[in-house]
What does this fold into?
Amino acid sequence: MKVLLINGSPRKSGNTYTALAEIAKQLSKHDIKSEILWVGNKAVRGCIACGQCKSNGDKRCVFGDYDICNEVISKMGECDAIIIGAPVYWGQPASQALAIQQRMLYAGGGNFQGKPAAAVCICRRGGATAAFQTLQMPFQMCNMPLIGSQYWNIAYGREEGEVSKDIEGLQTMRTLANNMAWMLKKIHDVNTTDTPERETWTPMHFIR
Ligand SMILES: Cc1cc2nc3c(=O)[nH]c(=O)nc-3n(C[C@H](O)[C@H](O)[C@H](O)COP(=O)(O)O)c2cc1C
It folds into this structure.
């Protein structure tokens, strides 16, 4: 089984990457493969409603050669689940992440239908819950079961790598991976426990 992880930050090794890497590491403990695909730092087009992806029937976006959209669609033909991660920009997911998500689901929806999905958002201080909900919404209308964690799938940090100091945030990522692994095993009829693995909660409050 394999989970595709989308790093929707223009910073390749930023906090979104660090959070996704924590998920990947935890998934591997459950013998589940993963791959982190970076959105890049070049222009990403939004959907222009041209309808070409529907008329040619090959699940490809016309802008797909310029960014990772078509790569995501074809990789999802082989993957069993997807997690999209994005930094919070102005209280919403970074626009590159949103553009890829909207186009990949519109053009390649059939490769996503029914597969578990999760959103992950990273921010300095605020707006993460709104951004998280925004990224969850498209999955909810593609028959994709949403995977949560012990908290919303959120972690905090500003400069690259700072999210490593968010002890609870990284635990939230590992719990998300545990829940994803458990769900995939249930769906694919692989022998597993009755409930997902749980760590002892490591809370980390803003006021300390
Ligand atoms: C244009 C822009 C807007 C941002 N808006 C917010 C925001 O609304 N709330 C917040 O807490 N952090 C905001 N940030 C900070 C980023 O969310 C934060 O640095 C995050 O860790 C970046 O993730 P990355 O390292 O994966 O790129 C913003 C950063 C940028 C560049």
